[in-house]
Design brief:
The complex is a heterodimer of chains A (80) and B (417). Chain A has helices spanning 20-28, 47-58; strands at 9-12, 37-42, 61-68, 71-77. With 80 residues, chain A is an alpha+beta fold. Chain B contains 21 helices and eight strands.
Chain lengths: 80, 417
């Protein structure tokens, strides 16, 4: 949990090579209902550019991006 | 079948019928030599796994609509209609071919099955039956090109996180930037993948060589090419070309990504800059004495997997062997002729399809696993992201007991300070 955002599902994408983090998040978002939040934990800095572009093309919303050590944590709301 | 879609599919075929393509479709004599040249058939010897079977899936449609005999007497020429079953049939043929072109080397007529499969992939796109993941990845790449300013901000944040890793591999003089971006008139624009492993070793080597380089904001991989969509392929490619032209760079260096290299080197037309693979650039640095490498201990045996798009289809064969010759004393070839090295089995977008294709990828690449095992090498080196992932999967599946490494990482780790 981060501040007021409560995730409904968490996926661990740490250590995955390109382009698997985006592939997995695309699959993961379909495992939550519309309106629910997916928490995705990546380690590769490439996710910082890939995930916003994916959210834009897939029509979902990144509510927040946190960085804790090497972890990059995305809170993504499924919009459709 | 929807008549409009039927017409669109016919037009898609018609648009692809160049003289060369018609030669590929008209010439096959069914000699069957391509069968044993294909890693899929060599690993799983079933007729559906032969290049000629794949090519026939398009050839039969071509006969039906573009050849007089097929139009008048379809039964004789085995001509088939485009119907509601076409997409299901083409999915099996198009995505069981990795586009490695080993069959083309053996074919007496030089028939390029990968080119024929480009028609199959295009028909799948028209029928909206292409792998969703590949189209999604292509769209993500294009989206990054559409909103460069926001990409830049996040990209630079990402680079900050890995700068220290670059410096750890090669210490910089005071005031020097570890990962330069937006350098006008740079000698090299390096186009990496969206991953630290593709940037850190390369940056350390550029810095060690004293190169005047700059890092591209875009990732090299072209998912438009994987999915077989020419318009998306061009959009993804143009982002990099436009950046190179804007910065007035002399050379574009493509990271360890086979498809990215082949698309930029062979499918981008005339450009005001030179195109090189990172392997070629590293070989040049060694020849010019710009970097020096410390050899591995004599008992460390290594072998090299030639990425098909860089070696057989790109001509970069001597350079990796020259580099490895500087690092390893015990080098073992897997094939007497590198041009006929087996494909890893992960190309053509299959690796990017992840778990969906893992069973097929493992079964269809047994010959590659056998080749690696036979080398008895401790380290399996390659210079392509797709190959690396697939070889890692093969290593685990077949318990090969090797360590799979990128050539650029080997070079970066061997730099003499």
């Amino acid at each position: 949990m981060s501040d007021s955002i409560k995730e409904d599902k968490t996926i661990d994408l740490k250590g995955l090579p390109c382009p698997m983090p985006v592939v997995k998040v695309n699959k993961g978002i379909k495992q939550v209902d519309v309106g629910q939040v997916l928490k995705a934990i990546a380690s590769d800095p490439g996710a910082l550019t890939d995930f916003p572009a994916w959210a834009k093309t897939s029509g979902n919303e990144i509510l927040k991006t946190d960085q804790e050590g090497d972890d990059i944590i995305f809170y993504i709301k499924r919009l459709k | 079948m929807d008549p409009k879609l039927h017409q669109e599919m016919l037009k898609a075929i018609s648009d692809k019928l160049t003289g060369v393509m018609q030669m590929y479709l008209d010439t096959c004599s069914r000699c069957g030599i391509c069968a044993s040249a294909c890693h899929v058939y060599a690993s799983v010897p079933e007729f559906e796994n032969t290049p000629v079977y794949r090519a026939e899936s398009i050839r039969k449609i071509y006969k039906k609509y573009f050849k007089l005999q097929g139009k008048l007497l379809p039964m004789i020429g085995e001509a088939v209609d485009i119907d509601d079953n076409t997409a299901d049939m083409l999915k099996k043929t198009a995505y069981s071919c990795t586009g490695c072109r080993r069959c083309m080397v053996y074919c007496p007529f030089g028939i390029d099955t990968q080119q024929i499969m480009s028609i199959a992939k295009l028909l799948l796109i028209k029928a909206e039956s292409e792998p969703e993941i590949l189209s999604m990845l292509a769209d993500v790449s294009i989206s990054k090109g559409d909103s460069l300013d926001s990409v830049k901000e996040n990209f630079l944040k990402g680079l900050k996180k890995i700068e220290a890793d670059v410096v750890e591999k090669w210490k910089l003089e005071a005031g020097k930037v570890a990962i330069p971006t937006e350098v006008e008139n740079a000698d090299i624009l390096y186009v990496a993948l969206a991953g630290a492993h593709s940037i850190v070793p390369a940056a350390a080597i550029f810095n060690a060589a004293g190169e005047n380089w700059t890092l591209s904001f875009f990732e090299a991989v072209n998912f438009g090419a994987f999915v077989g969509d020419p318009s998306k392929t061009k959009l993804i490619l143009d982002r990099i070309i436009n950046e190179a032209i804007r910065l007035k760079v002399k050379e574009v260096c493509i990271c360890e990504c086979g498809t990215a290299y082949r698309v930029m080197a062979q499918l981008s037309g005339d450009k005001p800059f030179k195109v090189s693979s990172i392997t070629q650039v590293h070989a040049r640095y060694i020849r010019e004495g710009r970097i020096k490498l410390k050899p591995l201990p004599a008992d460390v045996s290594v072998t090299y997997h030639d990425p098909c798009q860089i070696a057989r289809n790109g001509g970069v064969i001597d350079e990796p062997r020259y580099i490895i010759g500087q690092i390893a004393k015990d080098y073992r070839e897997m094939s007497p002729d590198p041009k006929t090295n087996w494909c890893c089995g992960g190309g053509g977008g299959l690796v990017a399809l992840g778990d969906e294709t893992i069973d097929f990828r493992m079964k269809s690449s047994k010959v590659k696993a056998d080749q690696v095992k036979k080398s008895r090498a401790k380290i399996l080196i390659t210079a392509c992201e797709n190959c690396h992932t697939q070889l890692d999967n093969l290593n685990e599946h077949y318990k090969l007991g090797v360590e799979v490494k990128f050539l650029s990482s080997m070079v970066a780790d061997a730099l003499i300070k």
